[in-house]
Every structure is written in C-alpha cells, then in structure tokens.
Amino acid sequence: MAGRVDLDGNPIKPMTICMIGAGGFIGSHLCEKLMSETPHTVLAVDVYSDKIKHLLEPTSLPWNGRIQFHRINIKNDSRLEGLIKMADLTVNLAAICTPADYNTRPLDTIYSNFVDALPVVKYCSENGKRLIHFSTCEVYGKTIGAFLPEDSPLRQDPAYFVLSEDASPCIFGPIEKQRWSYACAKQLIERLIYAEGAENGLEFTIVRPFNWIGPRMDFIPGIDGPSEGVPRVLACFSNNLLRHEPLKLVDGGHSQRTFIYIKDAIEAVFLMIENPARANGHIFNVGNPNNEVTVKQLAEMMTQVYSKVSGETPLETPTVDVSSKEFYGEGYDDSDKRIPDMTIINRQLGWNPKTSLWDLLESTLTYQHRTYAEAVKQAMSKTTAN
Ligand SMILES: NC(=O)c1ccc[n+]([C@@H]2O[C@H](COP(=O)([O-])OP(=O)(O)OC[C@H]3O[C@@H](n4cnc5c(N)ncnc54)[C@H](O)[C@@H]3O)[C@@H](O)[C@H]2O)c1
Ligand SMILES: O=C(O)[C@H]1O[C@H](OP(=O)(O)OP(=O)(O)OC[C@H]2O[C@@H](n3ccc(=O)[nH]c3=O)[C@H](O)[C@@H]2O)[C@H](O)[C@@H](O)[C@@H]1O
C-alpha cells in the first residue's frame, strides 16, 4: 500500500469515505477492495450488513478499525450529517433499484431515488464535501433508434443508439408507464447535483452503471430474500437454474443489454475516488460495450455455463416466454438497447473493462452454485414433503 500514486503521479493520501448503501451489491465489492488495497477508512451506512459481515468480523481482520458499520436509515436519522462532516468524500449508493418495484411501488421508488437523496446532496454542498452519486444508465430510457421503422437502415447507425453522457437525450414513456418512475427520479437528482455544482461549487461525480453483475447481486427468492420477490435478471435466471425450471423470457427476451463484471466496474469507481481532479464535475458511463446480448441470448449462455459449472444436464426446453404484464404487472415498459459511449471515461481516467460475458458468467455462476445449490435443494425437498 505504501507509495500509492494517482494517475498524475501525485501521492494518494489516506481518506475517510462515508459510503451510504455500503451493505448492498456494489457497496460490498467497493468496501472489500478499499479494505484490501488501500489505507482509506470507510464509514459504512446501511440498514443491512449481511453482505459485508465478512469485512466487519472477526476483529482480528487486518483492516480492523478502518471500517465502521452504522445501521442507519437515511430517511430519518440525524446522525447522517455528522458522518458526512467527518468524511472527506461521500459515496451514495442507497436506492430501490429493482425494476419489479418501479411500477408496483412507484412512491417508494421516487422517494428512495430522489427525496431521500436530497439531504445527502445538501449536507455535502453545505459542508464543502465531495460527492460521488450513483445514478443509472436508465436515465437514457429508450434509444432514438427504437422509434424508427423496423426496417430502417438508420437502426444500424451508432448515432441512433450509442448512449453518450453529453449528447444523448433522456427518452421515457408516458406517466402511466410507471416503470420510468426510477429513471425520472434519478434524472432529477442528477440535475439537482449538477446545479449544485454550477451554482454552489459542489464537487461531484455522477456514475451511470450499465448492468453491473456478479456475486452477491440481489437475492435468491425464498433463500435469502422473500419467496415472492423479483430480483434483477441475473438473480432471476440463477434462481431458475438452481431450481431446474425454465428461465422466463419477458416479452420474448428481445431487449438488449451490455453486462459488465462487477470487479471491472469497481476499478473504474476506484479511479474516480482516487483522482478527484480528473473525476470532479463529470458524469461517467461505466459499462462494457463489447458484452452486448439479447436477454434471450443471456438465458441461453447462462444455461450453458451453469451446466458446465454444476455438471447438471440442461432442461430440454430451457426457456419459456411470459408477458411483461404477467411478470411485472401493469405499467411495465423497457429500455430496448444499452450501448455505453466510453469516450469520457477513457479520456479522463484511461479506464477500460476487461472481462468477457462468458468469463464473468462462469465465475458468477460458480459462486451462485457454491453458495445456494444445497439450500435450494433442501428448500425444494421440504416443499415436496409438505
Ligand atoms: N447494479 C447495477 O448494475 C446498477 C445499475 C444502475 C444503477 N445502479 C445504482 O447503484 C446503486 C447501488 O446499486 P446495487 O446494485 O448495489 O443495489 P443494492 O440494492 O444491492 O444496494 C443498495 C443498498 O442501499 C441500501 N439502502 C436503500 N435505502 C436505504 C436507506 N433509506 N437507508 C440506508 N440504506 C439504504 C440497501 O439496504 C442496499 O443495501 C443504486 O443507486 C442503483 O440505482 C446499480
Ligand atoms: O442494471 C442496470 O444498469 C439498471 O438496469 C436495471 O434494469 P434492467 O436492465 O431492465 O433490469 P433487469 O432486471 O436486469 O432486466 C434486464 C432485462 O431482462 C428481462 N428479464 C428479467 C428477469 C427475468 O426473469 N426475465 C427477463 O426476461 C427484463 O424484462 C429486462 O428486459 C435496473 O433498473 C437497475 O438495477 C439499474 O439501474
């Protein structure tokens, strides 16, 4: 750890980071890397700590004293401002960010992604503290190309689908499509942070993750989350594979996504944390444009990879189509395609993703199998016995 320097060759001083939402998927990976590779201190704020328990106990861990857990709900806790004041930097990850909630719990979604983030922005601005705020690629909504005729040659032109921070519009569906409650709340908090920067000098960085996936993402329904819960696609498909049931393709699985390995993405956040002069005032796409698939192709690849890591033969019919209304309920809508423009992050931080989709699925599904296969088997045999 000694002699660590930033991208401009300046020594990196140890800092204190207030990380809100540290107990979630991204937070757990960020805390892990900060503890093992840097001398920084983390004030970890969340309502849950299960995913970072291995970093908090036992007290003999080499980073003992450099990570403190604060069980705080940021909706209503006066201790938050004190923690932000104690820190050099605040990283805000707290959010409701599972699509199944956007149309079924739109109020909670808007409060979580906009209203609850307001005090965090305010405290950072008033106390002259730096903020890294987690937004989403969903702020782009749909591509311009989605509105062209199916056979238009312009659909192949990157100008109509590549999503760039400083040029692409944000295209959401009508209000009754409540899917967009999340994207709209995230967009408004981005605009507020940007305005705090412009009018009051807030030092900020906004991160727009593009489908980061890996171990510890969300939950497996009925095992470490509610049986009726609907997590994001990686956990939905993992759950189907663990239970030997067909993977459900919403509206045929034609939507396209680019998936990036969490460990590649965390490298980018690291560079932002330790290179404030290059990261402040910027909005960054963080994704892997080389890993594009349709959801149907993702299902097929996950089926193949899972068979390899588990040694189990895939089902004869590995997928089944389901309507979005049946799967998510009224008010669902979808982003058609998500290719991140990498120009700004390349220029500012020299960062590029490394891991192919096959490789990231192999390590992630190995983890899923090792962590959950036995528990799922036991839960299923109990259900059969009853
Ligand atoms: N994973 C991705 O690919 C992805 C993509 C786009 C955007 N994001 C954004 O990144 C952030 C983190 O995402 P994640 O995948 O780690 O999600 P996550 O749900 O695993 O983590 C969010 C954490 O915030 C905590 N939290 C929520 N409300 C809170 C509150 N009121 N008080 C205290 N803690 C609270 C939750 O308990 C959870 O541990 C979110 O803002 C999300 O919108 C993630
Ligand atoms: O990860 C991101 O970058 C962002 O996008 C996600 O949104 P989305 O990609 O639509 O969510 P997933 O649940 O991962 O679904 C991906 C696609 O798979 C489909 N899907 C999902 C689950 C399933 O079982 N079957 C299925 O076909 C969905 O309809 C969607 O088209 C979430 O909104 C956020 O976590 C985040 O902001």
From TrEMBL:
GO BP, sorted A to Z: cell wall organization; UDP-D-apiose biosynthetic process
Top-level taxon of origin: Eukaryota
Keywords: Cell wall biogenesis/degradation, Cytoplasm, Lyase, NAD
Cellular localization per UniProt: Cytoplasm
Molecular-function GO terms, alphabetical: identical protein binding; protein heterodimerization activity; UDP-D-apiose synthase activity; UDP-glucuronate decarboxylase activity
Domain NAD-dependent epimerase/dehydratase: from-to ranges: 17-287
EC top class named in words: lyase
Enzyme Commission number(s): 4.1.1.35
Matches recorded under InterPro entries: Arna-like_SDR_e (IPR045869), Epimerase_deHydtase (IPR001509), Lipid_A_modif_metabolic_enz (IPR050177), NAD(P)-bd_dom_sf (IPR036291)
A GO-annotated cellular component: cytoplasm
Cofactor: NAD(+)
Record's catalysed reaction(s): UDP-alpha-D-glucuronate + H(+) = UDP-alpha-D-apiose + CO2; UDP-alpha-D-glucuronate + H(+) = UDP-alpha-D-xylose + CO2
Family that this chain belongs to: Belongs to the NAD(P)-dependent epimerase/dehydratase family.
Protein name per the record: UDP-glucuronate decarboxylase
